[in-house]
Each structure stands twice: as structure tokens, then as C-alpha cells.
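Technical annex B. To support the medicinal chemistry partners, we prepared a structural model of the target in complex with iron/sulfur cluster, based solely on the information shown next.
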Amino acid sequence: MAELRGRIHSFESCGSVDGPGLRFVVFMQGCGLRCGYCHNPDSWDCLAGREYSVDEVCKEVAKYRIFMRFSGGGVTLSGGEPLLQSEFSAELLRRCRENGIHTAIDTAGSVPLEHSAPVFAHTDLVLLDIKCINPGIYHELTGGKLDNTLETAAYLGRHNIKVWLRHVLIPGVTDRDDLLERLAMYAATMPTLEQVEILPFHQIGEYKWREMGYDYRLTGVTPPSPERIENARRIFAGHGLRVVI
Ligand code: SF4
């Protein structure tokens, strides 16, 4: 059988925001969404990046095992969208688990379950980014469909896989009390949800969009004020959810 190879954008050896403890983060190449605020438009093209075998990535991971072990960390697949290269991601996480390493995936949950479920079978924690709870705004913001994300969320609950929900707070787009309230109500029904992370919008991605010749759609949008961030925190906390900002 041919060796399984995946396209990878980059690695981060001691990430501290993509799951518990210190993480070895694998940023996979390729994404089917086009989020208006994306920081990594250079990760969109499925044919870019560099090819690695599972063995090669495992060798990289092995160098940092000690940091992972002592910090309660592990490996996180991020992107891009790691579920697009589902065979590679599943095998990489299977190998990590086989070596006693905690596994996480940072995903928008936009890939149909027939592809993503085999990856979830080897995943301890899913950082699920629900971009907006309104299907129309979701589509405008990302070019994708909310349905897939909600089907993914339901699947994770049924299969007892832990979830951290992520949500980017964008003034004039997602930072609306009615939307936040609906998302919080939905989140409160997710049986394996451990926490909600509110990510305040910022303009980090803009220069990359321009460099790559893309038309950046959120020019002039400012980060949310401390009051609006606190407002969002209060709405989620009001539904009994643990909130991290
Ligand atoms: S899902 Fe992530 S990588 Fe893909 S476009 Fe959205 S923010 Fe960018």
C-alpha cells in the first residue's frame, strides 16, 4: 500500500491556545470555507504547502513528547481544515493515541460526517468553531453551510467526544445579542461541551489577504469593545456555560 501523505502548511511546537497544556500544532493545508476574517488565507489552497508522510510528522511530534507529558498537552490538528485530509488526519491521530498522546482537532465542522467521523474516532477533544448560528449569515461570512457544523456538533455529543466551542465576535456581523443568545441556547444543549471560547475579532489577516490579491471584506471593522466582550461573556454564562476569553 502506498504510504499515506498529507499536505501541511506549517507546525507550531509549543502552542498554548489550541487545547489543554502545551500542544504540538499541525496546521494542515486546504480549506473549503472562505471566512471573511480568516488569518490564514495562505492555507486555503489544497495543493499548496508541503507533503509529509505520517511517519515524518510522528518523528517531529516525538521531539516534544516530554513538554506535552509534563504540561498535560498533546497534538492538535488545525488549519486550514484538518478534516479535509481525513485519511491522513485519522492515521496521524491514531498513531499519536497509540503513543499515549492526547489528540485534538481545531475545525469548523464543515466537512460531511462520512469523511470526518473516521478522524473523530481517534480524537479526544474537538475545538469546534461555530461561526454563526444564523444559516444566512453563516453562508455570507464563510461561503459554507451551517447544517454540516450542526450535524458535526450532534455527532460529537452522541459519541461522547469532548468539545470546546469557539466563536469569533465580529462587530456588525456576529456581535448581536439575538445571535449570541441563540448560540448560547444551542450550546447549552450540547452534552459534551466543556467550555465556550469567545475570540474577539481583529484585523491580523488583512495584510495577508492583500498580499495574496484577495478582496478583504471586513476593512474598517474594529475589534469589539471590552463592554461588548463582557456582554457576550454574560450571555453565555447566563446559560450555565463556562466561558473563556
Ligand atoms: S475555516 Fe479557518 S482556515 Fe478556513 S477560511 Fe475559515 S478561518 Fe480560514
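Notes passed to the chemistry partners:
The longest strand covers residues 5-15.
Residues 31, 33-35, 38, 40, 43, 79-81, 108 surround iron/sulfur cluster (CB under 6 Å).
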